[in-house]
Amino acid sequence: MRVDASKINENTPYQELTEGLKMFAPATSRLFKTGEWRTDTPVWITEKCKQCLLCTPTCPDSSIPVVAGKRQGFDYDHCKGCGICAKVCPFGAIYMKEGVEA
């Protein structure tokens, strides 16, 4: 059975899901707000940021948007709070805060 990912939600019975929750349609990750898995939240200190963009390619969830060559805030809907961005920031412009609230 193949499932339309846009119709999967917390009320979907397990009998209607694919084995291993395999997805067969492209770009379905945008439909799922995986940020609710987060236990720690990255916080961006704009005053310390030098726009080096080292954090952006290291984010495994592409949760650091860049517009016109400058990083923006976090996409907390998809950030899982891994903390890699805080580790790679050479300017201390990102730190991890306990909890899911920014």
Walk me through the structure:
It is a single chain. It contains 2 helices and 4 strands; from the N terminus they run E-H-E-E-H-E. A two-stranded antiparallel ribbon has the order 1-4. Strands 2-3 form a two-stranded antiparallel ribbon. The relative contact order is 0.24. 9% of the residues lie in helices and 14% in strands. A hairpin with a 2-residue loop joins strand 2 and strand 3. By secondary structure, the protein is mainly β.
Q: How many strands? A: 4
Q: How large, in whole angstroms, is the Cα Rg?
A: 16 Å
Fraction in helix: under 10%
The rounded distance between the terminal residues' Cα atoms is 39 Å
Strand order of the largest sheet: 1-4
Q: Characterize the main sheet.
A: 2 strands, antiparallel
Instruction: Report low-confidence residues grouped into runs of 5 or more.
Output: none
- Molecular shape: elongated
Structural class determined from secondary elements: mainly beta
Strand content: 5-15%
